[in-house]
Amino acid sequence: MFWYCWNQALGPWNMIGGFIMMIFGLLFLALIIYIAFQLLAKNNGITKLSITKSPEDLLKERYAKGEISKEKYEEMLHDLRK
């Protein structure tokens, strides 16, 4: 009997409160998913940056920029391929 009276006393607020809690729950879940995607995107960016060019490619770039001579390039390339 008490529960019947208590439930009737709340009336429509009982349903509205449940609806509001459902909205907050969905917003919280959306926030968690958003944060997870942001962290994954950031980690993928770091991973992509950490994958560097091969040593031979770096050596070719240095030779193309004129940082090393042809003899030094060939010597270093020979050492890399050993």
TrEMBL record:
Q: What are the UniProt keywords, alphabetically?
A: Membrane, Transmembrane, Transmembrane helix
Which top-rank group of organisms is this from? Answer: Bacteria
Q: What is this protein called?
A: SHOCT domain-containing protein
Lineage from the top down?
Bacteria, Bacillati, Bacillota, Clostridia, Thermoanaerobacterales
Task: Please list every transmembrane segment annotated in the UniProt record, as residue ranges.
Answer: 16-41
